[in-house]
């Protein structure tokens, strides 16, 4: 990927852009650059995919584990 | 199930078991998810989760309500997880300079299957330094705000942002390597 100075600046702000933490002016600047730069659009897509993977990777307790957890907690509390 | 409200929190502070049971019911799943992503082991995670709730119950009268009850529980859970890392000397040393090497990364993020996603993400998370993994799990897996993370991690919001940026770059690299 060829990175211009502008691209590097945009990449540093991509996380904030994805997290909706940037001001209107800064967002507009990034969006204008993204329209013109396929490399940065690609980076944005990759980052969004990673965040989506993180959300999808959620772990969960089974019903038995949850039941046992509560039993263990309250047994321990009762003992003390 | 009612939401965690002021009345419930007051009861929690008085170590009311019924109220505490509701709190365990409400937060166990979400806390387990965070803990698992930190220690990446089911038995350890269950153990840490149990200890987290027990410690929270014991310390309940001292809960001041300066942070939300959830972030308070997360802070306890992370301390427990860190303690476990330390006891078992499972520190993850990593050369942070590699995150500046962001060249020639192929586009490999088309995988959509639910199965395998957890394994891929967990395998990449395992290679992240503990402090990076922590902010990434809190923000991108659990969905806490930067402000909440800054309270839990005892960092400024700017510090959280910087660490999160580096953690995401590193995770991206690890996901590529694991493909």
UniProtKB/TrEMBL annotation, chain A:
Q: What is this protein called?
A: Putative zinc-finger domain-containing protein
Against InterPro entries, the record matches this protein to:
Anti_sigma_zinc_sf, Znf_put
Which organism is this entry from? candidate division WOR-3 bacterium
Q: Where is the Putative zinc-finger domain?
A: 7-41
Among Pfam families, the record links this protein to: zf-HC2
């Amino acid at each position: 990927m060829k990175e211009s100075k502008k691209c590097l600046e945009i990449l540093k702000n991509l996380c904030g852009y994805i997290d909706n933490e940037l001001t209107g002016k800064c967002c507009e600047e990034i969006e204008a650059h993204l329209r013109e730069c396929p490399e940065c659009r690609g980076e944005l897509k990759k980052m969004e995919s990673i965040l989506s993977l993180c959300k999808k990777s959620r772990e969960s307790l089974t019903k038995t584990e949850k039941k046992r957890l509560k039993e263990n907690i309250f047994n321990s509390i009762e003992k003390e | 199930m009612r939401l965690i409200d002021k009345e419930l929190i007051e009861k929690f502070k008085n170590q009311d078991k019924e109220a505490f049971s509701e709190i365990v019911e409400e937060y166990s799943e979400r806390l387990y998810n965070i803990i698992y992503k930190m220690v990446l082991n089911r038995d350890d995670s269950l153990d840490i989760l149990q200890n987290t709730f027990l410690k929270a119950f014991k310390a309940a009268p001292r809960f001041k309500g300066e942070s939300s009850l959830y972030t308070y529980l997360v802070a306890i859970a992370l301390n427990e997880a860190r303690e476990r890392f330390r006891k078992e000397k499972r520190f993850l040393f990593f050369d942070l300079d590699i995150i500046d090497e962001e060249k020639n990364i192929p586009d490999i993020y088309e995988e959509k299957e639910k199965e395998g996603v957890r394994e891929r993400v967990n395998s990449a998370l395992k290679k992240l330094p503990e402090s990076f993994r922590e902010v990434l799990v809190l923000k991108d897996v659990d969905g806490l705000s930067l402000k909440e993370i800054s309270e839990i991690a005892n960092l400024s919001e700017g510090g959280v942002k910087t660490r999160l940026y580096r953690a995401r770059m590193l995770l991206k690299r690890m996901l590529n390597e694991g493909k």
